Amino acid sequence: MADTGERPKKTIEAEPLIIPDSFEGYPLNYFNLPLHYRNDLKSVLIPYGVIQDRIEALASRIFDDLRIGMPEQLVCMCVLKGGYRFFSDLILKIQNENRRRSDRSLPMSLEFIRTRSYVNDQSSNRLEIIGLSDLKTLKNKNLLIVEDIIDRGVTMATLKKEFEKFEPKTIRVASLITKRRKDKVCVFKPDYCGFEIPDHFIVGYALDYNEYFRDVEHICILKESGITKYKVLIS
Ligand code: HPA
Ligand code: MG
Hints:
Elements: E1 17-18, E2 41-46, H1 48-66, E3 74-80, H2 84-100, E4 108-119, E5 122-130, E6 142-150, H3 154-164, E7 170-179, E8 192-197, E9 202-203, E10 219-222, H4 224-229
Parallel strand pairs: 1-8, 3-4, 3-6, 6-7, 7-8
Antiparallel strand pairs: 2-10, 4-5, 9-10
The structure holds hypoxanthine and magnesium ion.
């Protein structure tokens, strides 16, 4: 075929890669998992390598979208604790874009906030937010909020409202995961998303269950027995 000289256009999807309900994850014995959680996990839903590839794609898309008309720093807001690995890998991959590209760049500054709402595998209706007090510098800045998972969407909807009070110029949200809830209740759609998953409670890659399982590389589905073993009593 004659070479027309036309380059194929590289398009990267900002919408999530959808994991169907029929996929229940990969068997554990194909992966190197820590011994201390071996009996508590059901399967590997998203292997570490796949997470990394998808984050690299999102970083490239974010770089291309946000460097336009943005000579000033993009404020990247890490939502701790669950978002720390996604945040760290996403920033690293945007930095790689900055190093590779000689035609354009995206300067960033990094901020951190901590939220807490989950007890056991249920969202409590109390959202604690720590670190909002020193964010006056957000005024007129472009903000990218980086979150691990959007489930009901209530945390992110509340957080966004809190950030709006500081009058940033723009707010965008990147979430590694959104959950396709059985009750279909989700009140927030992120601008950038890695994966949409079926309605399972997942752990690993910094996502926890009562502070356990953050120290697993892959995103895994928790077993019913794991849910029981690490349950805390709510007073
Ligand atoms: N796992 C961990 N944390 C979460 C989840 C989940 O499935 N949903 C909301 N927060
Ligand atoms: Mg989170």
